[in-house]
Amino acid sequence: DGGITQSPKYLFRKEGQNVTLSCEQNLNHDAMYWYRQDPGQGLRLIYYSQIVNDFQKGDIAEGYSVSREKKESFPLTVTSAQKNPTAFYLCASSIGGAKNIQYFGAGTRLSVL
Amino acid sequence: QKEVEQDPGPLSVPEGAIVSLNCTYSNSAFQYFMWYRQYSRKGPELLMYTYSSGNKEDGRFTAQVDKSSKYISLFIRDSQPSDSATYLCALTGANSKLTFGKGITLSVRP
Lengths: 113, 110
What we know:
The complex is a heterodimer of chains A (113) and B (110). Helix content of chain A is 0%, strand content 52%.
């Protein structure tokens, strides 16, 4: 079954703690993306990667970091510098190209303790 | 002016109604137009995508694009309670960046 797997489904962060959200895809897509979704705000792009070992900041990268060591994996770390991390985080992948149709995982809901 | 504007909703309709969901955009460079459906606490799933102006039909769903007016619509015929979800329009421009509308939450009452 091809798809995008995000884990965990729910995550809690303590003050001053870094947490890492996992995203794995077996679609053989080159491009991967991280979005943050807040009520009434739509999807906002955090980081994206079009190829292994390369990634770019999106619109709201501050307080987040990523790595892309393998084609199928694109983990997101929410650092302690992100003061308002409570949100629904979505990972997506795409074959790229002009259409850039993106396919999404089921999301991780992050809350602050 | 935001690049993509979507009616904020929420929208509530009785079962069997025809639903019209709309987005407007300001950048004429947008080339591909998509609609995603997102159920509560799930990731968005692609419903339809179109390239040119005109209509594209898939079952009860019709996507319509009017490039001259910079207006896109999704019509749902014979709406069902299972259609209750948030619908997001998404557009791709010349740089292949995908820009999303904020989404509209639809509720179909039995």
